[in-house]
Write a structure and sequence with these properties.
alpha/beta, 13 strands, globular, 4-stranded mixed β-sheet, 332 residues, single chain, Peroxisomal Thiolase, Chain A, domain 1, 5-stranded mixed β-sheet
Length: 332
C-alpha cells in the first residue's frame, strides 16, 4: 500500500440561477411533469443563459467556492483536472481556461472526456499523482453545459439534462481516510447507443450536419437504461465485496444522477436503504460529469469524518466506474 492516501479535503459547487422546470418544458415539447417524473424523476434543471458564459465559467465558480471554503490560495494548487464533454472550444483545454481565470499560476491542467463517468476517471487519475507524492494539492472538476448539446425539440432527451459544475480538493494524508479502492471500465462498442454524431474529425461541422441536428445528444434510451442498471449495480456490489463492506457499514452511495430508477435499482442490488443514497436529480437533472461532485456539495453538511462512501457512475463510451473512499472531514 502507498505511504500516502489521497483524500478529499474540500468541495465547491455551482449551478446557474435559471431554472427550467417541467411545466415550462411541457410548452416546448409534447411532455408533462407526470411523464418526466415517472420515467426519470427530474422536476427541474438549471440552464446557463448568460451571454458569453461557458463551461469554464461554471468550473471557475465551483473552484472559487472550494478555495474560499478551504482557505486555500490559488498559487498553492499543483494540478487541475477537468472532466467535461462540453469544452468551451476544441482547444485549449477547458481546464487551462479555468486555471487562468482562477489564477492558478503554479498548476498545470488538462481535460478528461469520459462523459458521465468523467469525474470518477479524473478523480482516480488525480489520486495517483497525490499518492506518489508528486503533487500536494490537486483540484478535480466535473463540469458540463449540457444545454448546448441538447435538442429542445426532442421529447426523449431534452427533459434529461442540465448545467452545473463541482470541484474537489485532493490532498495527501497518512490518516485512515481518503480513496481506498476503485474499479473502472469501458466498452467502446456502446458508442452506437449514446454519442454525438457530428462535430469531431469523423464528421466535421457543416451545413448538412447542423440541419440534420447531429450536434446534439443521440441516445437509444432502452438500450442505455438496461446496461446502465447492470453496470452501476454490479460494479458497486463488486467494490463492496472487495473491501468487505456490508450494507450497514456504508454511510453513503453517491450515484451518477441520470435516472431515479437506475439509482433505486443500484441501491436495492447493494442492499442499502434509501437514506443511505445521495439524490438531487429532481432539482438539477443530469449534469453529466458534474452530478457526483454536486451531490457531495449538496450533502456536505451531513458528511462525517470516517464515513464510508461509494461513488459510482455509468456513461457514454460506454464508461463506468466505482470508487470507495473514507470521508476526510466533518461537514461544515
Amino acid at each position: 500500500m502507498s505511504k500516502f492516501r489521497a483524500a478529499i479535503t474540500g468541495i465547491g459547487g455551482y449551478v446557474p440561477e435559471c431554472i427550467l422546470d417541467n411545466e415550462e418544458l411541457s410548452h416546448m415539447v409534447d411532455t408533462s411533469d407526470e411523464w418526466i417524473m415517472q420515467r426519470v424523476g427530474i422536476k427541474e434543471r438549471r440552464i446557463l443563459k448568460e451571454k458569453g458564459k461557458a463551461t469554464s465559467d461554471m468550473g471557475l465558480m465551483a473552484v472559487n467556492d472550494m478555495l474560499e471554503k478551504t482557505n486555500t490560495k490559488p498559487e498553492e494548487i499543483d494540478l487541475l483536472i477537468c472532466a467535461t464533454i462540453t469544452a468551451d472550444m476544441p482547444y485549449p483545454a477547458t481546464a487551462n481556461l479555468i486555471s487562468y481565470k482562477a489564477g492558478l499560476t503554479n498548476a498545470f491542467s488538462y481535460d478528461i472526456a469520459a462523459a458521465c463517468s468523467g469525474f470518477l476517471f479524473a478523480l482516480e487519475t488525480a489520486r495517483r499523482f497525490v499518492e506518489s507524492g508528486t503533487y500536494k494539492k490537486v483540484i478535480v472538476i466535473g463540469a458540463d453545459m449540457m444545454s448546448t448539446i441538447t435538442d429542445y425539440t426532442d421529447r426523449k432527451t431534452c427533459p434529461l439534462f442540465g448545467d452545473g459544475a463541482g470541484a474537489v480538493l485532493l490532498e495527501s494524508t497518512t490518516e485512515d481516510v481518503g480513496i481506498i479502492d476503485s474499479i473502472l471500465g469501458v466498452d467502446g462498442e456502446g458508442f452506437k447507443y449514446l454519442h454525438c454524431k457530428a462535430g469531431g474529425s469523423l464528421k466535421p461541422p457543416s451545413h448538412e450536419t447542423i440541419e440534420a441536428k447531429e450536434h446534439f445528444v443521440y441516445q437509444e434510451g432502452q438500450a442505455v437504461f438496461k446496461i446502465a442498471v447492470s453496470k452501476m449495480a454490479d460494479i458497486s456490489v463488486d467494490i463492496m465485496r472487495r473491501n468487505n463492506l456490508k450494507p450497514e457499514n456504508l454511510s453513503w452511495l453517491v450515484p451518477h444522477q441520470a435516472n431515479l430508477r437506475i439509482i433505486e435499482a443500484t441501491a436495492r442490488r447493494m442492499g442499502i436503504e434509501n437514506d443511505q443514497v445521495m439524490i438531487n436529480i429532481q432539482k438539477y437533472g443530469n449534469t453529466t460529469a458534474a452530478t457526483i461532485p454536486l451531490c457531495l456539495w449538496d450533502y456536505e453538511k451531513k458528511l462525517k469524518k470516517g464515513d464510508n462512501l461509494i461513488l459510482t457512475a455509468f456513461g457514454a463510451g460506454y464508461t463506468w466506474g466505482a470508487i470507495y473512499l473514507k470521508w476526510a472531514y466533518n461537514g461544515k
